[in-house]
Amino acid sequence: MFEVNGEYLLYHGSSVGIFQISRLANEILDLRQEYDLNTVEQRLKQKYPISEIKEALAGLKEAGIFEQDKNLKQFKKYGDPERVIQLIVSQDCNLRCDYCFADKGAYGRERTLMDETMAKASVDFLFSWLQQVERDVGEIAFFGGEPLMNMPVIEVVIAYAKEMSSRLGRTVKFGLTTNGTIINGDIVDLIKKNKIATMVSIDGSAQRHNLHRRFPSGKGSYHVVRRNSRKLIDAGIYPWARATFSQKNLEVDKIILHLATLGFTNVVCSVAQPSARHDGCSEKLDAPWTSAQVMRYKDSYKRYMSKIVQRYNGNELPINNLLLRFLKSIHFHTKQYLFCGAGQNLVAITPDGEIYPCARFAGVQKYRLGNISSGFRQFVPSKESIITRKSCSRCWARHLCGGGCPADNVFRRSTKTKEMYCSLVKFHIEQAIWLYNKLMQTNKEKFLQYLNQTKSRGDRLTRTKGGDNYDAHKKDK
Q1: Which of 79, 174, 343, 465 could form a disulfide with 357 if both were Cys (CB 3.0 to 4.6 A apart)?
Q2: 80, 72, 85, 65: which is closest to 21 by C-alpha?
Q3: How far is 327 from 341, CA to CA, in rounded Å?
Q4: Tens of pLDDT along 292-317?
Q5: Which runs of E-coded beta strand occur in 373-424?
């Protein structure tokens, strides 16, 4: 339950719904946490007329507020109908970011690039997978390391995937996550021609970005990334910015405000994540934040929320991916039983053809799901689902959170850190509920239009403003 500007709001976890309730209903729900309904009614008789109490109880019952989540024991798969492969075409990188979960691009292995034979075999695997599960849409997300270090193979994959798409009558989309340092005119043309949904890693201003994202020489990469991002935007390509927070870089509002000034209209935000190898750097990333750092982050996030409301009528701020996910789930009453589709409708393929639930797991043999030549076993994150973990099954936020990132749940070893991030997710959800209510009050028509426009995107926000897909049933313009 939340109080916003004197109004009482109730978030109902089982229905993923928000209700505006009276002061009396708020008191009923407070008492209901300790007493049965008959006792609640008796305790309130001295303060409210019995007719008002019964009317409030009837309204809460009709809304299903007292009902338990009947479907919680039933395991549900992630609902995105698409099938996605994160194609790690480069197990190498030209940067040496000190917070990189992929061990500076090498995934704890020898630095190497995927060859054409393995790349084509990976495309064959995707279309075979689509046929097997009777799906019509697949996506190839070029990943690294830095994938643009292997441009010849990317070009081969695109051409071959289009050929297969036309032959089999299925749709294929392309995505790219890049550090933005080696984008040139030819790459811009390739991205635009093939409508590749592009995400550029950039952590805010030069001072913030260069804290972590540096070349092997130690030189910061900000000015190169900013210049190359401008090339994309000037060409009519609207990339997503991927901003990574760390204990040294926590001011969300300042980071996103700066990215907006650069022309980014969509932002993916995440906290620096420990690698699977648990090296010295990873241990630092796994350390819990101090109480002062948590407070600094929360204050910054609240300022970001307020600025979204202030600027919603004019020059809107980008709404980050996690916030958008929560807003859509609240509005469309979408329950999340898992955080993502890792190992179910999304897999990562390494240069040697090994299959993992996602790139975060790549190179960790314990989580190897198979090989593209032999297929893969589905990854069922039994320890990560909101059904099997007791703390999640009882949590009010379970159907918006989905249990958290499976890789984080596995690779974060500090219990205090896990508890801290769990607390931050609940904080993010509380802020999303506040923002949803505020925008529905102040700018309902425009906000609903925005939500409906983004409804079909799904939770993997890898699209660009000008992004589309290659469809066998359409001709390229």
Answers
A1: 343
A2: 65
A3: 19
A4: 999 999 999 999 999 999 887 655 77
A5: 375-376
Residue 138 backbone phi and psi in degrees, to 5: -130, 160
Q: What are phi and psi of 7, to 5 degrees?
A: -105, 140
Predicted pLDDT at 315: 58
Query: pLDDT band at 188, cuts 50/70/90?
Result: very high
Q: Which amino acid is at 239?
A: P
* CA 89/CA 104 separation, integer angstroms: 15
For residue 243, give the 3-state DSSP assignment.
strand
The 3-state DSSP class for residue 330 equals: helix
Task: Tell me what pLDDT residue 475 has.
Answer: 35
**Confidence (pTM):** 0.84
Burial class (CB in 10 A: 0-12, 13-18, 19+), 249: buried
Give residues with Cβ within 8 angstroms of 400, minimum separation 6.
16, 326, 329, 330, 336, 429, 432
* Nearest Cα residue to 2 out of 17, 21, 15, 28: 21
| Separation between Cα atoms, residue 277 and residue 443, nearest integer Å | 47
d(CA 157, CA 122): 9
Return the structure tokens found at 216.
């092997």
The number of residues in the chain equals 477
Q: What percent of the chain has pLDDT above 70?
A: 83
Give the H or E element holding residue 416: helix 415-442
The first and second tokens of residue 434, run together, are 């506040």
- Give the number of other Cβ atoms within 10 Å of residue 88's Cβ: 30
